[in-house]
Amino acid sequence: MFPDLAGRRALVTGGTRGIGRAVVLGLARAGATVVAGHQRQTEEAESLRRELKDTGGDHLLVQADVADPGQITELVEATGTHLGGLDIVVNNVGTISHIPYAQLPLDEWTQVLTTNLTATHLVTQGALSLLGDSGSVINIGSGSGVVGLPLRAHYTAAKTGLIGLTRSLSKELGVRGIRVNLVSPGVIETHHAEGIDPAVKAAYTNRIPLGRIGTAEEVAAVVLFLASDVSSYVNGATFAVDGGI
């Protein structure tokens, strides 16, 4: 069953590239009206705007740096003005860097935790008044939040934090009819994967039982499931989209 999201209103952060872009387009093509947050005006943002226009909906792109709480407030306010309310929130925005823990500077730790974890908290908290007494919040985590990875202690800490945040909010907000779930991608073909050394990429592929790296669209399909009524009794769950690695 393909989710029918006609009439639903959605906010997606980090919506112009990779998984976020696939989620935005998937939601729009399923009938939702989407506000996509993005950090910079780029050709990727312009091309997404053109693709969204082809879906026929009244979609909107809003430039906002989620590392700045003030800009998160502006993003949520713009969403409320444009949509009048929300049914779906997808916290996708994130950043990553690879630094040995012994040399990890505080500002890098703070930046990664702010973008990957604190922004999810602030966007979700800000969206509560727009969600009302129902809705679906989907957080995009990472397999590294479960297994841990060297050189990424800060990133792993943030993604592990999303697991706890998701589980706590699912219990606290569930009484309001708001479901909160986590999607945990493995190795996915996105701009983040483009910089991976071919040998490392091959090593990852060899560990994946399905024998290949996943696509952003495959992650987006799980997000659409969680955004729809098909998953109406799914709450506080973590969905690994990693080919079995």
UniProtKB/TrEMBL annotation:
Which protein are we looking at?
Glucose 1-dehydrogenase
Membrane-spanning segments: none
UniProt keyword Mitochondrion, yes or no:
no
Question: What GO MF annotations does this protein's record show?
Answer: glucose 1-dehydrogenase [NAD(P)+] activity
Q: Which Pfam families match?
A: adh_short_C2
Q: Which InterPro entries match?
A: NAD(P)-bd_dom_sf (IPR036291), Sc_DH/Rdtase_CS (IPR020904), SDR_fam (IPR002347)
Annotated EC: 1.1.1.47
The entry sums up its family as follows: Belongs to the short-chain dehydrogenases/reductases (SDR) family.
The protein's matches in SUPFAM superfamilies, at most eight in alphabetical order, are given as:
NAD(P)-binding Rossmann-fold domains
**PROSITE patterns on file:** ADH_SHORT
Provide this UniProt record's keywords sorted from A to Z: Oxidoreductase
Asked if the Swiss-Prot or TrEMBL record annotates the protein with the keyword Oxidoreductase, the reply is yes
